[in-house]
Fold:
Amino acid sequence: MILPKVLDPRLVTIRRGGSLTDIDHHLLALWAAACAEHVLPLFEAVRPDDPRPREALAAVRGWTRGEIKMMDARAAGGHAMGAARDLRGAARFAAYASGQAAVTAHVASHDLGAAAYAIKAVRAATTETSNSREAGRRECRWQRDQLPPAIRDLVLEDQQLRNELCWSVFDD
Structure:
């Protein structure tokens, strides 16, 4: 569960009663896609012939350019998460990261799902617990370095608010 019961109005689009602009919504989606793509090789190493997670990332990027309808990006996200169902570990989390990135087109708050699952994927790919925590910290720092200035404070504050819902991966 990565979504709170009450959504932060800063992460709800203006047309739905919040204060999130379309531009910032697109930036959140692109950042989520970058986080997911960073760990996508962990999925593709296990399932090289399954294009669903990569297609989900292409769909959300297409949505940000106005080439894809939100419903199509959301559906692609569902298909990416379907690719994860019978997997375990890093490959599963990497596919979920792609799915979460794509459904950010529908609900902006899924951006942290993509980031959190990417961190979980990196941790799962590392065998020793101490190395796993350090790998998660490096991934979290890498993600934060990718944040566009326009949404940086929003995402960092949201990470603090929802860290517990996101398996406390943003402690890193």
User: Anything to note?
Assistant: Residues 22-44 form the longest helix (23 residues). The chain has one domain: 13-171. The chain has a mean pLDDT of 96.
